Each structure stands twice: as C-alpha cells, then as structure tokens.
From TrEMBL:
Keywords: Aspartyl protease, Cell membrane, Hydrolase, Membrane, Protease, Transmembrane, Transmembrane helix. It is a multi-pass membrane protein. One of its GO terms (cellular component) is plasma membrane. This is Lipoprotein signal peptidase. The gene is lspA. This protein specifically catalyzes the removal of signal peptides from prolipoproteins. It catalyses: Release of signal peptides from bacterial membrane prolipoproteins. Hydrolyzes -Xaa-Yaa-Zaa-|-(S,diacylglyceryl)Cys-, in which Xaa is hydrophobic (preferably Leu), and Yaa (Ala or Ser) and Zaa (Gly or Ala) have small, neutral side chains. It comes from Candidatus Erysipelatoclostridium merdavium. It is found in: Cell membrane.
C-alpha cells in the first residue's frame, strides 16, 4: 500500500491533533484539580471529574502496569502492520486505525510517565454514571466504530457485488 503525500499529512495531522488534545486536556485537568474533585458542566449530565485509572476499561485488572504497556506496544505494532496492508479505498478503516493508534499512544504516555491514566470526562445518562474517560478513550471508541462500519457496509461503501 502506497500512501500519497496528502494522505500521509492528513493522517499525521489527525494523529497529532488527537494526541496533543488528549495530553493537553489531561495536563490541564491534573494540574488544576485535586484527585476526585468534580466540576459540573451540564447539571445532571456532564462533569469534569479528575480520576486516575491504574487498570484498563472500567478500572479492570488494576495494578498490572507492565502488562498494559507490553500489550499496548504489541497492539501498536499490529496496527501499523494492518494499516500498511489496507487498500486505498479503505478510508474509514485507515482513519479508524489512526484514531485507535493516537488513543493508544495517549494512554500509553500516561502509563509510562505516571503509572496510571488520567481520566476526567464524567457523563451520566438515564441515571447511569458511565466510567470516567478521556479524549484518548474517545478516539479508540470512535476509531473502532469506523472500522466496524466499514467492515459491515464494505459492499455498499466500495460498490462490490
């Protein structure tokens, strides 16, 4: 797979905007709020609540930092290999991989430098308080969704019969 210069620039800009935004917002929150402190943004719906996650999703498997770092590094290599094997028309998959990769790097940076992931986005919908997350987490979820959408609708998107 050969990327055009334009595509390389777009993917790199996307990755650095997500990664930069993630690290900037995490720094802003962690330097201005105490652990556990919460600021209401939209009453009963949206808060900034500073949390430190030593596990993975929903705090599962807390305390296995070295394992998380190893898994992230292996996943990064696999994503790079998979990205290189994508076809030019697989735009959603490519953007999805870029978003997942940027999210992975954002949380990996936290794990390596702090020993935990800094989370702060706190959402309550229908009285369910979702686990607190960050921009890197959003990038991973959106990226995976784009990949799934392209897989499910591949024939429609690419006009295959």
């Amino acid at each position: 797979m050969k990327l055009s210069k334009r595509d390389k620039i777009i993917y790199l800009i996307t990755m650095f905007v997500v990664l930069g935004g993630d690290q900037f917002t995490k720094h802003l929150i962690s330097s201005s709020m105490q652990l556990g402190q919460s600021h209401e943004i939209i009453d009963g719906l949206f808060y900034f609540t500073y949390a430190q996650n030593t596990g993975v999703a929903w705090g599962m498997f807390a305390g296995h930092l070295a394992l998380f770092i190893l898994v992230a590094l292996i996943a990064a290599v696999v994503m790079i290999i998979y990205f290189r094997k994508t076809k030019k028309e697989e735009v959603l998959t490519r953007f999805g991989l870029v978003l997942v990769f940027a999210g992975l790097l954002g949380n990996l940076i936290d794990r390596v430098f702090f020993g935990y992931v800094r989370d702060f986005i706190d959402v309550i919908i229908f009285n369910y308080n979702f686990p607190i997350f960050n921009i890197a987490d959003m990038a991973v979820v959106i990226g995976v969704a784009l990949i799934i959408i392209e897989i499910i609708f591949e024939e429609y998107i690419h006009g295959k019969n």
